[in-house]
Fold these 2 entries.
Entry 1:
Amino acid sequence: MTERYAVIGHPVGHSKSPWIHARFAQATGQDIAYDRIDAPLDGFERTVDAFRAAGGRGLNVTLPFKQAAFRYSQELSERARRAQAVNTLAFRERIYGDNTDGVGLVRDLEINLSRRLAATAVLLMGAGGAAQGVVGALLEAGVARLVIANRTVQRAEALAARFPRAAASGYGEVRGPFDIVINATAAGLDGEALALPGSVLASGTLAYDMVYGRDTAFLQAARAAGARTCDGLGMLVEQAAESFFVWRGVRPATRDVLDGLRGG
Ligand code: NAP
């Protein structure tokens, strides 16, 4: 019998997740249907309740509901507990909440982009849901220096305080160099770059923007400084593959799907 999954967010019309999961299902022979659910801002719980009541088996959760999904979960994976945010819900005997953003980012960096994280210096920009989801996985991968910078410095400080080896900073005070600079903010979508000191981006740095399909102001500034750049499409595909594994117990290959999204 076909089992139902979906991505829930607001807005969600742009989401590539249905396409990605349809490819995974086809390649692994899993009988699933995967839709988009646009939930009202004040209606996350009742929308998920209705999806479950109609037989839904799992959800990917995107902006702005990752904290709501964390609260909705009855059982949490260790990585969701660490992140205090949930991007994957599985409806088992209990409601299981997981977070696959961190492992998705680490796999994209280490496998798809061949950048080993062990003993590197990483600047993570942002302290919202996306940043929360990846700090634990970056530290677990062996990052030696992790600085979290955010416009609202107190949010960076609160996030860094939850992890023994992370430090917090404002943008103007960050001191490089860094091997990898990750933009986990929504800034730059409007064409305005974050004001980073010159020491942060250099040739040899990998500048990674979690936003995908857009040449953001951050990526443009990084290229001008001679840094290598990459968007977050690989992270999107890798976090989806991990969610698929959480739901189905089967790990889909990602390379062809990523190539397909990049038009290759
Ligand atoms: P969020 O929880 O709303 O957090 C937004 C972050 O952006 C905060 O750190 C906020 O700083 C910062 N910000 C927003 N506008 C800014 C501006 N004009 N100048 C400076 N900082 C600004 O959002 P999120 O869930 O973390 O998502 C962030 C981005 O990552 C989104 O574009 C999302 O699509 C992307 N993402 C991609 C993937 C992927 O798989 N590739 C996965 C997750 C998220 P303050 O704290 O100061 O407000």
Entry 2:
Amino acid sequence: MFCWLNRLYRGLSSPTGRTTQLIWGSLSRSLVLSSRRRIPEFSSFVARTNTCGELRSSHLGQEVTLFGWIQYRRQNTFLVLRDFHGLIQLVIPQDESAASVKKILCEAPVESVVRVSGTVISRPPGQENPKMPTGEIEIKVKTAELLNSCKKLPFEIKDFVKKTEALRLQYRYLDLRSFQMQYNLRLRSQMVMKMREYLCNLHGFVDIETPTLFKKTPGGAKEFVVPSREPGKFYSLPQSPQQFKQLLMVGGLDRYFQVARCYRDEGSRPDRQPEFTQIDIEMSFVDQTGIQSLIEGLLQYSWPRDKDPVVVPFPSMTFAEALATYGTDKPDTRFGMKIVDISDVFRNTEVRFLQDVLSKPKGTVKAIRIPEGAKYLKRKDIESIRKVAADHFNQEVLPVFLKASRHWNSPVAEFILEKQSLELIRLMELQEEDVILLTAGEHRKACSLLGKLRLECADLLEARGVVLRDPALFSFLWVVDFPLFLPKEENPGELESAHHPFTAPHPSDIQLLYTEPEKVRSQHYDLVLNGSEIGGGSIRIHDAELQRYILATLLKEDVKLLSHLLQALDYGAPPHGGIALGLDRLICLVTGAPSIRDVIAFPKSFRGYDLMSNAPDSIPPEELKPYHIRVSWPADSEAEKSSLDHPHHPES
Ligand code: ASP
């Protein structure tokens, strides 16, 4: 283990040295000074002299007192002690006079907590361990105290990655002892600290807490409901502080930010949590480029120095281009394999189904190129790709190989004329071993399918050893010019907001609101990192009339529910805009963690349970009375009730 903690702290703060000055002249001066602190004082206020991980040859001869957990023991001679900072080897005294110390250190089970005092000495020549940052030295123990003994563990701390995630979540407090969790949570804390510094100290933002007991409001994600003591009345947990931050602008706060907890009852998805954290921002008198520059600066400033630096400004792409070339509004721009429209190649084709599609008004033929696909993709891969297309998109996809001998499952290959083949080679820049995946259909549908297959193929190629996405690369992208509305999924005849109903239309499209609202572009921007959406925001509507029209007439929402906001807009609301960054996802990408659960101290499981405490849990009927609530048990209620008496979760 490299000396990660020092590196983390050094990397994340300015290299101007530690300050011990306690009395500061002014608030701003003190904030600047504290931010310059290099390595924190880890042993202040406690009885230890040092942390385990910080000791080096420079400490030789020093008498030290350490506290930590027993990592392992070798032949009753050596013991390795661990704290959050690292590992240190202790030499267990063997002489008669130290028999009691020896007994404690030899008998205490692994993961017991001990206090030891002793002298820092050099390891004998040849016994140094270059892999350990403390590997040149060891502690000659003089006294030891067992502070708490550890029972047999459900898993070994150092092997935590090999355990099932359910077990790790059940014993989260043990899992947190692992190096990886310590690193992730500390890096998160450091980045948030730097963000606060940047926003509050450098740019005058005010950190303001907004309520988490709110009410149900229209639009957006499904909310969690909280009963109140008034019959039939409920609070809702906010899906974001959106309305409050806009009201803060009306209140003249000018620049707001919050590390905000948000709640969405959206069911499980791998990169979602029912409660999650946003870096939530709102500013008055700002436009889209202002918010974008702010975020670029914020990320650059808070970015860990041991990662490749963030290069600004970030590139930008319109929503339409993202969809047409990557099949998604969150393109992973670390690699090519872009979607190419090859409709023109097939205008006079003999292939029946291509003819059919192209004869329709929105019909297109599109393809992606899999570099060296003939070499890396197996027949079964092609079959599974075609199955994904059929099952999830109800679409046909055809592999086309350049080499005639390799046209497995490519019924069209023989119908592609020489001329078309040459045109395809030119348009798609094809090489000998490449494969193209071809599909035909309506523009949006064909793009979405190929966008999905592009990612599937990238995974397949990488599983075969091809490096497509450099793990050290952070590829940021702004996606802009979204439509203001999208057709509702469940009822395409109706409109819903592409972002949220408070997003302002593009100034040049305002007139279209009254004629062809589906064509209106918005002032909404998303920030994408390596193919994940890590933030989104917009310039807001600050005109009450326009807001009312969009809510009532276009979105058919009940405006009474938002009368507080509409009223506020009427009292001199300044023009304003903002953004929210998804902190969990961002930290997950920065640390390279496999899941967002790995950057949250106490996350919910995939299905939304807390496997450690068994939340959500049942409440006795008498405790529900004050809320005027009764559980209406589903038909197979007996099974339900008994599972509550003996809670078990599918994941545990
Ligand atoms: N509140 C929005 C969201 O959570 C972000 C924003 O528009 O600022 O997506």
